[in-house]
């Protein structure tokens, strides 16, 4: 019995200081973990509130929240591991090497991801706008992390990688509230130039979709090989652009026909020379 008691006392003397030392570290680490986890949750809610007030794109909204939450929680776990005496240097080195390997293997995808983040942050276009980029054009259907989906006027789906999209030229046809319509029409050299200009100006002034400011104008833009080329330049709302363009072009043809003004087409005169033998 005495031997058992002596053994217990020895164990108590050996382990009690260690238990006190590491128990306090473990309790502090656990408290840090709980408090840190709670703070991360509060921080994410605050970040989501700020992004909602600033009308951040929903796709970017959720992605940034998830990425920030994961990064902060990983840092918290590494800090807690260091508090209980776990060596974190090698662990961080392994994570860094793994991250480098993954980055090299997925550099194309990472470029698309970075391009998507830039597009969502800078907003050169939004869903529903009509754009032209990378040799294609269409209405933006959705902006995703790795690519942007366009719908063409004939209802084709075009998927454009965000990496090339963010680094190239983008023409946004929908961003401005108004657009200029240029109707370029040629008339014959023998036709009445003033009458043709009056007809075009009358068409512009008679269409309610044509804006008064800036005022419509008709210019003689060039004297071509086969025609005198006129340009009717008018401003309209962006949503009315194509309707105005097609309808006024048709009306101009009908009005010119009624007034006896011809719209010439390229012609070639061939002279045959007969040689006597």
**What is the overall pLDDT average?**
81
Distance between the termini: 147 Å
Portion of residues in beta strands equals: 15-25%
Overall 3D geometry? elongated
Major beta-sheet overview: 5 strands, antiparallel
Alpha-beta classification: alpha+beta
Regions with little confidence, pLDDT below 50 for 5+ residues? none
| N to C succession of SSEs | HHHHEEEEHEEHEEH
Task: Provide the spatial order of strands within the biggest beta sheet.
Answer: 4-3-2-1-5
Helix tally equals 7
Helix content: 40-55%
**How many distinct beta strands?**
8
Radius of gyration over C-alpha positions, nearest whole angstrom: 36 Å
General description of the model:
α1 runs antiparallel to α2 (58-83) and α6 (193-205) packs antiparallel against α7. The mean pLDDT is 81. The protein has 7 helices and 8 strands, in the order ααααββββαββαββα. The strands form 2 sheets. A 5-stranded antiparallel beta sheet has the order 4-3-2-1-5. The chain has a 3-stranded antiparallel beta sheet with strand order 6-8-7, covered by helices on one side. The chain has helices at 2-53, 58-83, 89-105, 107-122, 162-167, 193-205, 241-259, and strands spanning 130-133, 136-143, 147-151, 157-161, 170-172, 178-187, 217-223, 228-237. With 277 residues, it is α+β, with helices and mostly antiparallel strands.
């Amino acid at each position: 019995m005495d031997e058992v008691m002596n053994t217990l006392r020895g164990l108590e003397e050996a382990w009690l200081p260690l238990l006190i030392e590491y128990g306090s570290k473990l309790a502090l680490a656990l408290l840090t973990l709980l408090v840190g986890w709670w703070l991360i949750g509060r921080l994410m809610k605050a970040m989501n509130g700020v992004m909602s007030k600033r009308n951040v794109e929903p796709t970017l909204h959720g992605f940034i929240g998830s990425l920030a939450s994961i990064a902060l929680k990983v840092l918290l776990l590494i800090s807690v591991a260091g508090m209980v005496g776990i060596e974190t240097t090698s662990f961080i080195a392994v994570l860094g090497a793994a991250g480098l390997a993954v980055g090299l293997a997925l550099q194309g995808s990472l470029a698309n991801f970075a391009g998507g983040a830039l597009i969502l942050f800078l907003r050169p276009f939004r869903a529903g706008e009509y754009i032209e980029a990378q040799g294609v054009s269409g209405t933006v259907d959705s902006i995703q992390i790795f690519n942007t989906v366009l719908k063409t006027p004939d209802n084709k789906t075009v998927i454009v990688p965000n990496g090339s999209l963010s680094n190239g030229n983008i023409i946004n046809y929908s961003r401005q509230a108004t657009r200029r319509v240029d109707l370029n029409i040629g008339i014959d050299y023998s036709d009445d130039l003033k009458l043709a200009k009056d007809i075009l100006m009358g068409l512009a002034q008679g269409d309610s979709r044509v804006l008064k400011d800036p005022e419509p104008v008709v210019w003689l833009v060039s004297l071509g090989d086969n025609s005198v080329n006129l340009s009717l330049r008018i401003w309209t709302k962006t949503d009315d652009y194509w309707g105005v363009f097609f309808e006024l072009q048709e009306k101009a043809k009908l009005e010119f026909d009624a007034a006896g003004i011809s719209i010439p087409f390229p012609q070639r005169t061939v002279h045959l020379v007969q040689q006597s033998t």
